[in-house]
Amino acid sequence: MIDIQLIGLLNATLQAATLLFIAALGELITEKSGILNLGVEGMISVGAVTGFMTAINTENIFFAVLVGVLSSSVFASIHALVTVVLKQDQTVSGLILTILGLALSSLLGKNYVGRKLVTKLESVTSITEPSNIIEVLISQNIIFYVAIVLMIGTSFLLKRTMFGRRLEAVGEDSKSSDSMGLKVAKTQFIATCVGGAFAGLSGVYLTLSYVPYWTDNMTSGRGWIALALVIFGGWKPYRTALGAILFGFLEALVPRLQTYGFELSPYIVKITPYVITILVLVILTIYKGGKTGAPKNIGVPFFRENR
Amino acid sequence: MNNLKLFKRQTVNELSTFYSFLIGFIIAIIIGSIILLIQDKNPIDTFSLMLRLSVGSIKSLSSSLNKAIPLILAGLGISIINSVKLWNIGAEGQIFLGAIAVNFIYINTQFNSPSFHILVLLLAGFVGGSVCILIPAITKVVFGVNEIITTLLTNYIVFGVTIYLINGPWKDPKSLNFPAAAYVGEEVFLPTIFGKLSFGFLICILFTFLAHYLKNKSVFGFEMRIAGGSAMTAVYAGINAKQKAFIAMLIGGGFAGLAGAIELLSQTHRVSTGISQGFGYTAIIVAAITGMRPFGIFLVGSLFGALSIGGSVIQTIGVSTYIADIIQASTLFGALIIQFFFNYQIKRVDDD
């Protein structure tokens, strides 16, 4: 007999982890190409609101997911244009992408605050109250399984495909890659847009299942935690997933501590994910002593010298 | 065969940042107009209303400049920290902690001279901002933890602490519907210069010159630039790069904390969630768009202050306040795009 609270905890862990993981995985792909995109928070927000609006207006859930993913991807292409094509500062561009994304989604979603969804992203089986671990694992939301496929797919893509090898080469040494005939700008542009698409998927999961409603600034720092997760995972998909589960667990555990007999102020519960993220980053940096596994060219604009 | 190739320009126009900003602003106004048109609003009417209500009278001009104070001070702080090539995304939290520090000192101390009292409270705000960036600064300097993420995350932590304080220990029983701390006494309100313009604006001017001196004229500024440049040069020059980075971060955080103190003593008069309405984030745009130049930050901060006031008053005709945010962010994107053409040259080259 497994504790019903434990089942609930596991369920909540997987849901929170899925949300963080997909966005982190997208950022991982972008960063592998040597482009740092600090706009994750804004991209999630854009995907979240466009997906939600489409779901309200068309009541077609798959179309809503598609719109959310595509609009985030198009939004990310602003960053690609400014940093890849026009070679401007990646930190500045990414930060502004976040600010613009949050403002834009608040503007778009103004008339959608408090609206109720008719159709949501549902779990794949009809089990509503899982009673054991197996049932938890088979009753998750469809996006959870998509995330697993994406994880395996990304790992395969990075290690075993030409595109993945090219991506890594460009991110490690864009000058040599260029002289070997690889298309640096094209690779980086695609990687940035793919990162945006992943953030968009994370966003639609947020508004179409995880919460599910729309309100201003509802991403509440998850994009930044996703950025920290990429560092935590050492730019490796499986380790990033492990990190997401750890963060998801903590996010799920802290509000439940009260049921286990701990007295905790709800205000302290709210700030714990951010405190833990900082703590984890510090411990990790000390432990690794500078060898983080980051792509060498990250943040450096590529420019082919012409004479 | 004809080919387009990219060349880095040998000399870049000195005023390129200014021109980029100007053209970027025009691009942003066009984007804003498109959004207004989509919402069935006349852009010319809306923008002229915004202009009239933000700079059209002494009263509105003074509230615009009041709004500019936190943008300028936080922007200056960001620019000082950027001298050592570090980013401060935590100005929003530093503004809040500055205000919290002011209230803490106000509750726990007693002074006979109001002007001295105000001075102590302003100092408390500065220290509060420095304390807020202390953990990101230590973890950056000692362990090398990415300061962009840590400063950003402290925003959420400080905001959580603010919510806790105004709902818990500092909750004013008289403020029932809107959680907030009790008002500070009128004796510590900052005086006004003219209209509603707060004395804080003079502090702002003073600190703009101070930041300019610190960054560009002082020995410390020179050392900061070397520390932020190459690690080897710093070693050869005998400069302790980590120490410079640490001090720069504390000073920069202090500037934003001071903004929080002024906001409390001249605008809100109490700690509430209204201490900052995203000033710390807008300040990043202000600092980046000017290439981290203090006088530029002063001018663009003033313009964006007016834009924010304009944005908040057009709510009454059913236009979202976010239009101001979008114009500000688009200005920077536009400026980045234009800056490219100042830095690079596209030439048609015949391949052999």
Written description of the protein model:
- The complex is a heterodimer of chains A (307) and B (352).
- With 307 residues, chain A is mainly alpha-helical.
- Chain A is 70% helix and 0% strand.
- In chain B, 70% of the residues lie in helices and 4% in strands.
- Chain B contains 13 helices and two strands, in the order βαααααααααααααβ.
- The longest helix of chain B has 30 residues.
- The mean pLDDT of chain B is 92.
- Classes of the chains: A mainly alpha (307), B mainly alpha (352).
Number of domains of chain A: 1
Terminal residue distance of chain A: 74 Å
Question: Can you tell me the overall shape of chain A?
Answer: globular
What's the alpha carbon Rg of chain A, rounded to whole Å? Answer: 20 Å
Helix content of chain A: over 70%
Number of helices of chain A: 12
Radius of gyration of chain B: 22 Å
Which fold name is given in CATH as the topology of chain A?
ABC transporter involved in vitamin B12 uptake, BtuC
CATH architecture of the largest domain in chain B: Orthogonal Bundle
| Helix count from the secondary structure assignment of chain B | 13
Tell me how many strands of chain B there are.
2
What summary fits the major beta sheet of chain A? none
Low-confidence stretches of chain B: none
- Tell me the strand percentage band of chain A: under 5%
Which sequence of SSEs, written as H and E, runs from N to C of chain A? Answer: HHHHHHHHHHHH
What is the strand and helix layout of this fold?
The complex is a heterodimer of chains A (307) and B (352).
Chain A: H1 4-32, H2 40-58, H3 61-85, H4 90-108, H5 133-138, H6 142-160, H7 162-172, H8 174-179, H9 184-210, H10 222-232, H11 237-256, H12 266-288
Helix pairs in contact in A: 1-6, 1-9, 1-10, 1-11, 2-3, 2-4, 2-9, 2-10, 3-4, 3-9, 6-7, 7-9, 10-11, 10-12, 11-12
Chain B: E1 2-8, H1 16-38, H2 43-55, H3 58-82, H4 91-108, H5 114-143, H6 147-167, H7 200-217, H8 219-228, H9 231-236, H10 241-268, H11 279-289, H12 294-313, H13 322-343, E2 344-350
Antiparallel strand pairs in B: 1-2
